[in-house]
């Protein structure tokens, strides 16, 4: 994931050498920086995104500012990838930033945390089937190691169940995870809840954010029963492939968003001269 971030940074340096007037998104900090140079420190208000010298705004007309330069570069790259038609449904980082800035549901930090932890009650990998035996074995082999990891990592009890009521999650488990999530910023929590809602699993999200799982692994584990049925009955190529790629894209964007919102080291640039 961090290699991807570095690739974004390298690509941004190449974008800085492109002539003005194109689709390039430019990251600025609010200072009057000469067009042929770029050297700055992060301002108190965050990093702005300028598109062809015009300040980007949110749907509620707020100034589009982000907390880290790494995230600003990633968003700028996302905009630069747009062609003749701007496809907002492909711009997951921009959407997450807009949600963080506008907070359309008016939720506070505690409400975001509770919403994410509530997914434990219906966590995908905690619900098990009783038959067929091959699927029972598959769930055990693929999901149990992740649950075991989470229980050891956070010192909690999670478990699994074949009951439609789901597993009985101890109150202490919820308290520990609430305390853990409280260490994240509001921005990062927006990303975490977004990933949880994509994977339908708090446990898989923890594994992904903690780098225990890759995006591909987390997505596959969240779709384990569906993939089992595809292997058994066949694949509707255009539908299943599209759903898989979309889920990967959204999950990857959410995970990247969390890490870039937690980025505390400012990227230092050399002075760019003509």
TrEMBL record:
Organism taxonomic ancestry: Eukaryota, Metazoa, Chordata, Craniata, Vertebrata
Protein's UniProt keywords contain Membrane: yes
Transmembrane parts of this sequence: none
Pfam families: ATP12
Family under the similarity heading: Belongs to the ATP12 family.
UniProt-annotated location(s): Mitochondrion inner membrane
GO CC terms in record: mitochondrial inner membrane
Main location: mitochondrion
Keywords per UniProt: Chaperone, Membrane, Mitochondrion, Mitochondrion inner membrane, Transit peptide
Primary role: Plays a role in the assembly of the F1 component of the mitochondrial ATP synthase (ATPase).
UniProt source species: Phyllostomus discolor (pale spear-nosed bat)
Membrane topology label: Peripheral membrane protein
Keyword hit for Chaperone: yes
Protein name in UniProt: ATP synthase mitochondrial F1 complex assembly factor 2
Biological process terms in GO annotation: mitochondrial proton-transporting ATP synthase complex assembly
Subunit structure: Interacts with ATP5F1B; involved in the assembly of the F1 component of the mitochondrial ATP synthase (ATPase). Interacts with FMC1.
């Amino acid at each position: 994931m961090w290699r991807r971030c570095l690739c974004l940074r390298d690509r941004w340096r190449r974008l800085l050498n492109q002539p003005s007037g194109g689709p390039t998104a430019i990251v600025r900090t609010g200072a009057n920086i000469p067009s042929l140079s770029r050297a700055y420190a992060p301002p108190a208000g965050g990093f702005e995104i300028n598109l062809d010298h015009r300040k980007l705004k949110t749907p509620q007309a707020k100034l589009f500012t982000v907390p880290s330069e790494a995230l600003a570069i990633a968003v700028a790259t996302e905009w630069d990838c747009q062609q003749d038609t701007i496809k907002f449904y492909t711009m997951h980082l921009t959407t997450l930033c807009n949600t963080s800035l506008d907070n359309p549901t008016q939720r506070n930090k505690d409400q975001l945390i509770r919403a994410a932890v509530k997914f434990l009650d219906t966590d995908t990998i905690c619900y098990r089937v009783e038959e067929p035996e091959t699927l029972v074995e598959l769930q055990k082999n693929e999901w149990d190691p992740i649950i075991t990891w989470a229980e050891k990592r956070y010192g909690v009890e999670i478990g699994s169940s074949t009951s439609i009521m789901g597993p009985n999650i101890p109150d202490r488990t919820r308290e520990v995870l609430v305390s853990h999530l409280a260490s994240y910023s509001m921005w990062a929590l927006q990303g975490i809840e977004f990933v949880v809602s994509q994977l339908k699993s708090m446990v898989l999200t923890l594994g992904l954010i903690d780098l225990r799982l890759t995006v591909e692994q987390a997505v596959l584990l969240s779709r384990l029963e569906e993939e089992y049925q595809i292997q058994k009955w066949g694949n509707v190529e255009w539908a299943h492939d599209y759903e898989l790629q979309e889920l990967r894209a959204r999950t990857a964007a959410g995970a990247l968003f969390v890490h870039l919102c937690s980025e505390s080291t400012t990227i230092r640039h050399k002075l760019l001269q003509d």
